[in-house]
Amino acid sequence: MAKMSASMVHSTGGGSLASSTGGGSLASSKREGSPASSNKEGSTAPSNKEGYTASTSSPKRPDTAGTELLLVTDRRTASAKYLAAQRAEKAYKAKKRTAGVAKHRVDAKAHFRQSAHHLNEGMKSSWRIVATLPWMARGWKERRVEKKELKSREKEMEKKRKSEERIARQAETDAEKERENEKEVEVEAAGIEK
């Protein structure tokens, strides 16, 4: 219906026909030759009920002001219907989208409330971190010292193990030398006795 009304408005030009017809007043719609109007031909023929003069010549065609008024009225009603339909469409769309907007608004509000809570908790935790930075630094230092001590202990253990191995090898070589010396001494003692 809105399309039909729009096409009707468009086909009539959308302008006011009343202004082009001299205001569209009822005075212009009075028929020529009515009892109130003067007879242009000057005939004294009696008038009939409808206001037309009865003359011997052909009857005059009625004025077109009635048609123009009808067109203007049709255009105005079509324009009013079109505007009403447009308003109804906008109201329907607004009502339809308002439901979705309300849901999104509630969701956004909840998210912002949560984000504010999380931001607050994050700031508290950050402040606690800043307040305990000296203790954290001391803890890091203690861990470094412990690692250093552990490495030095491992190095000492390795050195001790290597020195023990070296001492064991040295003792073994010394024991072998002694045995060889004893054998030589026995061989020499056996050679002297012979």
UniProtKB/TrEMBL annotation:
Query: In which residue ranges is the amino acid composition biased (Gly residues)?
Result: 12-25
Query: Which residue ranges does the record annotate as region Disordered?
Result: 1-72, 146-194
Instruction: Give the Polar residues compositional bias ranges.
Output: 35-47
Q: Which domain of life is it from?
A: Eukaryota
> This chain belongs to which protein, by name?
Uncharacterized protein
